[in-house]
Amino acid sequence: MIISANDLRQRLASGERLALIDVRDVAAWREASLPGAYGLNVYDYFVPDSTQEDYAAMAGAFIQAWQQLNIADDATPVFFEQEVGMRSPRGLWFLWFALGRSGLVLDGGINAWMEAGGNLAPGSGTWADVSPVNAPAIPPAMPQLAATRQEVLEADTQTVVLLDARRPTEYAGSFVHGCCARAGRIPGSKLLFWEDVVESGSFKSAEAIARLAAEAGFNPSQRIIAWCHRGARAATVLVALRLAGYHDLAVYVGSWHEWAGHPELPLHSGS
């Protein structure tokens, strides 16, 4: 699920087939990346509506972009960015969701790679964008990794628990992004700030993440639906919880941007 920079260098040197995938913006990839890395934008696609139909369109958009990269089936994908943030875990989530394939996140990203003695080179291979343009709707391989708005609305807070990965001010409703119609949080949500699962650009240990999750009121027997502003930060927490031994996990991709836009849906605010 994650790989250290030292392990990555050793496995590449041994001749293992690994597909390095830079998920930063195209300009950063072109300037300097891991040698031979593909470029893939997984950050800017968000569903207009969190339904099974729109999730099939999202899966189709990822598969279309993936096919453009022409990555061999026997190559293990390794997603990376400058350091672990909102993008490389989302790339891994996309891979699981759309294709059901296993992959890795480079823990610490490019910073860790350079600290381990790895060199950089301008990106010059294939770059692709997860985009709805001309993308077919394809049922995802692992649909359980994306929760619909209806599932979120029906969550019972006992067996299905909602995880707000946003900053505490967003959770309390004192801050809201300008694109959102309302401030607050989805009722019943518990806060696990996404930045708390990483430290110095790398994931915290599985044990530390498990402690944070337990302190926030979660346990591995529950189904956890993570959400944030538009679904990216939630994927980072999802990968972190997988590292900590949680298995029944999903991202509500529409997240607060979608929920706030439906005035009929309830909200809570305050700490």
TrEMBL record:
Organism of derivation: Cedecea davisae DSM 4568
One Pfam family this sequence matches: Rhodanese
Name of the protein in question: Rhodanese-like protein
Matches recorded under Gene3D superfamilies: Rhodanese-like domain
Statement: the UniProt record of this protein carries the keyword Repeat: yes
CDD domains cross-referenced by the UniProt entry: TST_Repeat_2
Keywords: Repeat
Signal peptide: none
InterPro entries for this protein: Rhodanese-like_dom, Rhodanese-like_dom_sf, Thiosulfate_sulfurtransferase
Domain named Rhodanese: residues: 14-122, 156-268
